[in-house]
Structures are given as C-alpha cells and as structure tokens.
Design goal:
The protein has about 240 residues and is an alpha+beta fold. Helices cover about 55% and strands about 15% of the residues. α2 runs antiparallel to α3. The radius of gyration is 32 Å and the shape is elongated.
Length: about 240
Amino acid sequence: MVITLDQVDKYVGQLIKDEYGRVIGKLVATFSNVSGEVETLEVVINDALYENVPVSRVKLTPDGPVIVSEWKVLATEVENKLDRVKRRLRATEELFRKASIPAHAYEELKKKLDNEFKTLKEEVSKVKELLRKRAGELEDLVIRLEKDLTNMQILYMGNEVSDQAYKMASELLRNNKAKALDEKRDVEKHLELITKLESEAGEIKPAVEVTPPPAKPSPKEQGKSEQPIQVQVIDVT
C-alpha cells in the first residue's frame, strides 16, 4: 500500500499507537521520495529513543497511522509465499494429470517449485521460532500484570492505597493485560496458519510416481551371461 506525505503530515507531533491500541511514541518526522511517497516514519519513544519505522510496518486508519508489529509483517510475507507455492504446486500437478502440459515442462516446473519450497521452509522455520518467542514474551507479560493487579488489590483491601489510586492502577493494568492477550491470540493465529499452509504444500502428491530404470548388469555379470553353456553328452549304449 502506498502512503503519501499528505496523508501523514498532519499527524506529525502527535502520539502514535500500535494496532492493539498501545502508545508507541510520538511521530516526529516523515521521510519520502521525490514522488511524495512515504518511505519511513521517525518515532521518538519516551522522549529519548528514536526509531525509524519502514512504511511496510505502517497502516493508515481513520484515526491516523498505526505501527504494525515486525513479527506480523514477517509472518504475513511467509504466509503469502507459502500460499503461492502451494497453489502453483497444485496447479502444476493438476495440469500434468490432465495432460495439459508436456512431461519435460512438468519436470522443469516441478523441480523449480520443489527447490523454492525447500528454501522457503528455512525462512518458515525462523519465522515460526520468532512467533513462539513473542508468544512466550506476551505470556510472561500477562503473568506479570496479573501479579501487579493482585498486589494492588491486596493493598487496597488493607486500606493502604486510596480508592482513586486503586481505580486508576487496576484500570491501566486490566487494559494492558487485554491488549497483551489480543496480541498473543494474534500471534498464535498466524503461527497456526503458517503451520497449516506449510503442511498443505508438503502434502501435495506428484501426478506420477517416477520409477527408476532397471539397473544395468555389471560387465562381469554381462560377460557371464554371454558365455556359451557347456553341455556334456553321455553315451549310454
């Protein structure tokens, strides 16, 4: 999706969030090419850390631009590649099964697609590991937020914090927990989809089973077969 400078210029200086509603930082600058197409956004985090976000991680919404998680960009790219390879493998087998393409074209296409799938599986493995890691981080975050909320409840029940402090803290913690769970479910959904697509691509059977030609006899065995058979004649008269 192409994002132009005029679409984001009005949001410079404002807070920018991720797609789960968490504040990432403040949009401080935009960078574009000579055509006015945005290439990156500069976001300042906690008024100290500056991050240059590529446009591939930016999504426009009615409320302005939001930042898409890096894991989601990588997962979506892998999903698209797996789906494309799966459909091409299936189409190649189907066309050959219907005798719509010659054998030499089928073998060439099949070899190319098999090699592409093999290379893609290495990328898939790395992305799946990234998703598992992120899911684990979010699980740890949820547990930490639950502990924080429990601690505030104990302090509140013991009249050690005010109603206002407890209300503000508990609302913030619950909201953050809900957003973390939303992302965790999203991660798990993409992990499941990638696993499914990879399995479906790998299960596509070839249209024909290629059987190897019979092995040629060795020169030694061939020589034996060509030797004349000696017949002994016994005179019984």
